Amino acid sequence: MKKAVILLSGGLDSTTLLAVAQSEGYDIHALSFNYGQRHKVELESAQRVAKYFDVTKHLVIDINLREIGGSALTAEIEVPKGREQITDNSTDREIPVSYVPARNAIFLSFALAWAETLEAADIFIGANAIDYSGYPDCRPEYIEAFEKMARLATRAGSEGKRTLRIQAPLLRCSKKEIIQKGMALGVDYGATHSCYDPGPGGMACGRCDACLLRLKGFAEAGIDDPLPYHGKG
Fold first, then answer.
1. Domains by residue range for the chain, with CATH
2. I need a surface site. Which of 8, 100, 103, 190 has the fewest CB within 10 A?
């Protein structure tokens, strides 16, 4: 089987991504990060998802981005709530304080190192540029640029042994389309976690960007979100 490294946060997008890659016949090596995020509960979801899909290996790597800070997810900065405009598909968005500086570059670099060790040609990332918070490292041009860099920066790429690919099959999908795709592949979204600022017990707040985009997707798909939310149900 062809091997692939998949960035797995335990969220809606990355879980759907894993299901897509597995349906395409890849031997899955999942990679998650304990990076000092305030929503560390997502790692429990990542572990559930990895177990459910019976991946070949699931690594959880510790890197302390709290030492760097600069984000509402890794510093004592309030997580934005109620940004209803986040759901309007506007291309003119201010980058929110929930953006973690260079996070995808850091994660993809670890994935690239593991892929080279595994002699894998494919790295999957659940980046999305349609229903997203406006992060610069989720854009198509960023994925293309990193792929070019990966081919230049690795032994496999420089020697022409393998053509390294950064695959982002959900990049141009709406949350509705992602959910529909996942449901068709048997994804249990009750095992996932999306909230940036969960309450006690990990319950989703229902008002941060991640929650609003997730709820929008389920509503448009005509499907009930199986997760409980603070103040609901």
1. 3-221 (3.40.50.620)
2. 190
